[in-house]
Specification:
The structure holds 2 protein chains of 2 kinds. Chain A has a single domain, classed as P-loop containing nucleotide triphosphate hydrolases (Rossmann fold, 3-Layer(aba) Sandwich). Chain A is α/β, with parallel strands linked by helices. In chain A, a hairpin with a 2-residue loop joins strand 1 and strand 2. By secondary structure, chain B is an alpha+beta fold. Chain B folds into 2 domains: 171 residues, no CATH class; 98 residues, Alpha-Beta Plaits. Chain B is built from 10 helices and 4 strands, in the order H-H-E-H-E-H-E-H-E-H-H-H-H-H. In chain B, helix 6 crosses helix 10 and helix 8 runs antiparallel to helix 10. The radius of gyration of chain B is 31 Å and the shape is elongated. Classes of the chains: A alpha/beta, B alpha+beta. At the A-B interface, helix 2 of A face helix 7 of B.
Chain lengths: 220, 294
């Protein structure tokens, strides 16, 4: 469950959000849309504690994010898988190591890490590229690695920031297929996108952010 | 992954990957710690030299001419039983006169001008080596001066004061240099670890976003700092051992005087130097990593 209640966020004396509220229930899949600069990425950052609101309350699962102490933020993030817009893959690490990075703070043996990472890579059909470096992968493959890294720790929530970016339709469909599978297993998925094709006809909830608030909420 | 296993693995990997920077850092720390070791030898040998120079230091207790034999005996017993006094010898008025005559040699005739022996009888006391500090000797002299039959107590007060001032100034200087080098050691490691931290900045930022706790981020750098400081110190211990061995055996064979001044280097020094190197380096690493904010 993700709840943003009356959130106000101000940058340089200019509010990005003003009393913005939204709610995504556990196990749901939701989309956040809106024009560039509407604050879609900031909204995700507020959810995983990289930014703090100036007013309002944020609840993610059992965590009151707004009241969370610095040292507890890693624990919140261990329950969230994040697909970053800029991928954040480490070029000097292999696909396997990039994915395994998300398990660093999880108390698993090296053998268990190996098995878990291999299983996830198998699921997204990238096991054969596990020893490759990110720069040797295509854009679609890199995005799949990012998704693998986001889901490897079996998080309760996945947040994806423009996961299909500038991909062609085929690659975008593959990526969306992965998110649907993840959601079907009970994981809450929140996707930020400006690509209408991703949510049209899905029936999932769409929050359109504009003018510092959720301007429209509708079924995709 | 288990934090210790992960941190050790990450630290060792980084040490190997950045072997040249690490090697140079270890070398720098080793040079710095060797200077500390040399000053440690100096400090220890100042004490040894001071004790060597003061081993014949005596306190002379002059007695009244009217002192009775019984009082003299009582004083001797007191001095003999005093644990602070290692040697007691008595010089009678006649012996003192003989000594003066002997010292004057051909000019001894001037003593004939005296109708009576002007010299008092005295006790010469040798104090224990570790008590030869101006304030202790002064206090002891004051106590003895109050004994019945004692007219005056004399000792080389100015010489002793000067020697101790000299020794104290040398020690203070050596300690100041040691403190400066300790800070320098911390700074050397700080710089190296800061470089490594910046090189891994992207990885650390990503790890933070993926929920990695502070200790997982910080510990590998602290281990790396520990290893750098420890091996720097170890190398320095080896250098100091070689230097001390050379001075005690090699140099002493053609400069025998060195041997009598050089004290034995305690084994603890060889352990303390790597430990101090490791401690200062860990501190440098801690400052370099800084406060990790999410």
């Amino acid at each position: 469950m993700i709840v943003l209640d009356e959130i106000t966020k101000i940058y340089d004396k200019e509010p990005v959000f003003k009393n913005l509220s939204l709610r995504v229930d556990r196990g749901d899949m939701a989309f956040i849309t809106g024009p560039s600069g509407a604050g879609k990425t900031t909204l995700l950052k507020l959810i995983y504690g990289a930014e703090r609101p100036d007013k309002g309350e944020i609840i993610v699962g059992e965590w009151h994010v707004t009241k969370l102490k610095q040292k507890k933020i890693p624990l919140l993030r261990q329950e969230i898988g994040i697909v970053f817009q800029d991928f954040r893959l480490l070029p000097n690490k292999t696909v396997f190591d990039n994915v395994a990075l998300a398990l660093t703070a999880h108390k698993l043996s090296p053998a268990a890490i190996r098995e878990t990472v291999n299983n996830v890579l198998r699921d997204i059909i990238l096991l054969h590229r596990k020893n490759s470096y990110p720069l040797n992968l295509s854009g679609g493959e890199q995005q799949r690695v990012v998704i693998a890294r986001a889901m490897v720790a079996k998080p309760k929530i996945i947040l994806a920031d423009e996961p299909t970016g500038n991909m062609d339709r085929e690659n975008a469909n593959t990526i969306m297929g992965l998110f649907k599978d993840i959601n079907a297993k009970g994981t809450t998925v929140m996707i930020v996108t400006h690509n209408e094709e991703l949510y049209q006809g899905t029936g999932h909830r769409v929050f359109h952010i504009n003018n510092k608030i959720v301007e429209r909420e509708f079924a995709g | 992954m288990n934090i210790v296993r992960y941190s050790l693995k990450t630290a060792l990997k980084s040490i190997w990957q950045e072997k040249w920077i690490n090697f140079l850092t270890i070398l720098s720390i080793s040079i710095a710690m060797s200077v500390i070791g040399i000053f440690a030898i100096l400090i220890m040998n100042i004490d040894s030299a001071v004790q060597h120079w003061t081993r014949n230091f005596g306190v002379v207790v002059y007695l009244y001419d009217e002192i009775t034999e019984e009082e003299k005996l009582k004083l001797k017993e007191r001095f003999d039983s005093d644990e602070d006094i290692s040697e007691v010898s008595f010089t009678s008025r006649e012996d003192a006169l003989q000594d003066v005559r002997r010292a004057l040699g051909g000019n001894a005739v001037i003593m004939d001008d005296f109708n009576v022996n002007p010299l008092p009888s005295s006790f010469s006391l040798t104090l224990r080596g570790d008590l030869l500090k101006p304030d202790i000797v002064m206090e002891k002299a004051q106590i003895i001066n109050a004994f019945k039959g004692v007219e005056d107590v004399q000792y080389g007060e100015k010489w002793l004061m000067a020697l101790h001032e000299f020794s104290r100034a040398l020690k203070t200087g050596a300690l100041a240099v040691c403190a400066a080098i300790f800070i320098a050691t911390t700074f050397i490691t700080y710089n190296t670890i800061k470089i490594f931290f910046y090189r891994r900045k992207d990885e650390i930022e990503t790890m933070k976003l993926l929920g990695t706790t502070r200790s997982y981020i910080r510990l590998p750098f602290l281990i790396e700092g520990f290893v750098i400081g420890f091996f720097g110190g170890l190398l320095s211990s080896g250098t100091i051992f070689a230097l001390h061995s050379f001075l005690t055996s090699g140099a002493a064979s053609f400069m025998p005087a060195i041997d009598s001044y050089l004290s034995v280097m305690p084994v603890a020094i060889y352990i303390l130097i790597p430990a101090a190197g490791a401690l200062m380096s860990v501190m440098g690493s801690l400052i370099a990593v800084g406060k990790i904010r999410y």
